[in-house]
Write a structure and sequence with these properties.
With 153 residues, the protein is an all-alpha fold. It contains 5 helices and no strands. Helix content is 63%, strand content 0%. The protein is globular. This is DUF805 domain-containing protein.
């Protein structure tokens, strides 16, 4: 599957389709497009536009990731593990340390226990992301699996 077809498939035809399978090319071309679009939007400097973009891509990204995992024989709902941990991390740790814009130094340091927990949480997230990258780059199951026939190449 080429770049344009993959992006069109993930954003329109299978926007919220969690069933079936997605080839490596479909998934990774879509990820590349999302990263490029995200970088361009970030360069515009609008947090509101970045937030809207992230929310708009949540469903198709989850759907494509789910189908990609299913293509490798893994349950699609696993895609919500790293997504959920990322959300939990943002909710609990995202705004905990306020930085002084003039010095770049923290205004109020969190306690040692909180810093250790944040570090441990970060290590767990890193391990999970590495495992998921490994899974998402694996070849497709040959032939039909429990999630359906192989995707078109």
């Amino acid at each position: 599957m080429d770049f344009q077809t993959a992006v069109k498939t993930c954003l329109t035809e299978k926007y919220a389709t969690f069933s079936g399978r997605a080839s490596r090319s479909e998934y990774w071309w879509f990820v590349l497009a999302a990263v490029i679009m995200g970088l361009v939007i970030s360069l515009l400097g609008s947090w509101l536009l970045s937030t809207i973009f992230s929310l708009a891509l949540f469903v198709p990204a989850a759907a494509a990731g789910s189908r990609r995992l299913q293509d490798t024989g893994r349950p699609g709902w696993y895609i919500f593990i790293p997504m959920g941990l990322g959300l939990i991390g943002q909710l609990f740790f995202g705004g905990r340390v306020e930085i002084d814009p003039t010095t770049g130094m923290p205004l109020d340091m969190p306690g040692m226990g909180q810093m250790m927990f944040m570090g441990l949480f970060g290590i767990v997230q890193l391990v999970i992301v590495v495992v998921f990258i490994w899974w998402l780059t694996r070849p497709s199951d040959e032939g039909e699996n429990e999630f359906g026939p192989p995707p078109a190449a």
